[in-house]
Write a structure and sequence with these properties.
binds zinc ion; mainly alpha; 4 helices; single chain; Ferritin; about 60% helix
Length: about 170
């Protein structure tokens, strides 16, 4: 089980970094999935999110400096629901997903990141960690705000958005 204490600075930073790295990886994979099916708009949106989260990860790395962190902070370990809070589930994407749907997924993931950091901000015992958690929560709220704005540019999907007369995974 997970023995890392997220209320202590090294544990908190290890988890914060794992969250951001996992988000970058997941968004990049989603972008690639969308490329395969030529869903350019959704691919671009996921790529932009990956870029934002890369910046965030770099910031956290800068704070870590040369410090050694506890190992094992990864989504395979004890996340509240077994998944990194900021990474949307693979099963939630669809090759025909509209930008609106892609952004809804992103929005949910970003909201989970906000919650994760806010929980530590509220429940933390170390003042410095709570301060960092507050800052990270603020940044994630900014991501949420931005994603909401993006989503407003797109119409919600039509009812038959996933009707494909020629589905890709059928032979011939
Ligand atoms: Zn974010």
């Amino acid at each position: 089980m997970n023995a890392i204490d997220v209320t202590e600075r090294p544990g908190f930073l290890a988890y914060a970094l794992a969250i951001e790295n996992e988000a970058v990886e997941r968004y990049t994979t989603f972008a690639e999935q969308m490329d395969v099916t030529n869903n350019r708009e959704a691919a671009e949106l996921f790529r932009e999110m990956a870029r934002l989260e890369t910046l965030h990860a770099k910031e956290i790395e800068a704070r870590i400096g040369g410090q050694t962190l506890p190992e094992g902070a990864s989504c395979e370990y004890a996340w509240p629901d077994g998944e990194s809070p900021e990474a949307p589930d693979f099963s939630d994407t669809h090759y025909l997903m509209t930008p609106y749907q892609a952004l809804t997924l992103v929005l949910e993931a970003e909201q989970r990141a906000v919650e994760f950091f806010e929980t530590i901000e509220r429940a933390g015992t170390d003042e410095a960690v709570r301060k960092m958690a507050a800052e990270f929560a603020k940044e994630e709220r900014e991501h949420v705000r931005r994603v909401r704005q993006w989503r407003e540019r797109y119409p919600p999907p039509e009812r038959d958005w996933d009707d494909d007369p020629d589905p890709p995974n059928q032979a011939e």
